[in-house]
Each structure stands twice: as structure tokens, then as C-alpha cells.
Write a structure and sequence with these properties.
Elements (H helix, E strand, L loop, with lengths): L1 H12 L36 E2 L2 E2 L2
Antiparallel strand pairs: 1-2
Amino acid sequence: DRARIQNEFRAGQCNGGPGALAEAFRFEPVFPFADIRALLPPAPPLRPVMGSTKPVG
């Protein structure tokens, strides 16, 4: 049956052994995933990029 073949193929892509099955589901990033942005250090300041003597961006 087609669903089994598709699931075996997906399992192979995930390094599943012979006869293993894998299904794909839609991922919703909700609890229990934590927002760790407050724990990260601040980003470094942006500096302009120079191409020879003219500003590029």
C-alpha cells in the first residue's frame, strides 16, 4: 500500500532501520518550547561595509 511505502521511505531518510516507519506532521512551535532570547548576549553593533572608498550598504 502506498502509505506504508511512503512511511518506509521517510524512515529511511531519518536513518530508520529495515521495517521502520515515519510520518510527517505539521509542527506548531508552542509550549513547552521556551523563548531563550532574553538569555542571549546582545548583538554586536552593525558596522558599515566599505567597497574601496565608497560605502556599500
